[in-house]
Amino acid sequence: MNPVAKLLIIGGAALIVIGLLWQVGGRFLPLGRLPGDIVVEKENVKFYFPIVTCIVISIVLSLGMYLFRLFK
């Protein structure tokens, strides 16, 4: 099989799995609403920056990539 086609199939499957986990996991894991996320509400403006959520996602992805390289 062509390497590019194989990469696209694996990437598409990974996106589907991530999307399903995001839908199901959103009910149980409050990503985006963790303690430490910055929310500033004024009269007509709401500023939201999920800093802790970004850090958690970064750690999980880094660990996943490390394990992927380790067992490759």
Could you explain the architecture of this structure?
- There is one protein chain.
- The chain has 2 domains: 1-30; 32-72.
- The chain is 64% helix and 11% strand.
- The protein has 2 helices and 2 strands, in the order H-E-E-H.
- It has a two-stranded antiparallel ribbon with strand order 1-2.
- Strand 1 and strand 2 form a beta hairpin.
- The chain is elongated.
- The chain crosses the membrane at residues 7-25, 45-68.
Low-confidence segments, given as residue ranges, are none
Domains, number: 2
The assigned structural class equals mainly alpha
DSSP summary, beta strand count = 2
Span between N and C termini?
19 Å
Strand content: 5-15%
Mean model confidence by pLDDT: 87
The helical percent reads 55-70%
Biggest sheet strand order reads: 1-2
* Number of separate helices: 2
| Main beta-sheet annotation | 2 strands, antiparallel
Overall morphology: elongated
One letter per element, helices H and strands E, the order comes to: HEEH
Gyration radius over CA: 17 Å
Write the layout of secondary structure elements.
Layout: H1 3-28, E1 38-41, E2 46-49, H2 51-70
Antiparallel strand pairs: 1-2
Structural features:
two-stranded antiparallel ribbon; mainly alpha; 2 helices; membrane; 2 domains; 72 residues
Brief overview:
With 72 residues, this protein is mainly alpha-helical. The chain has two domains: 1-30; 32-72.
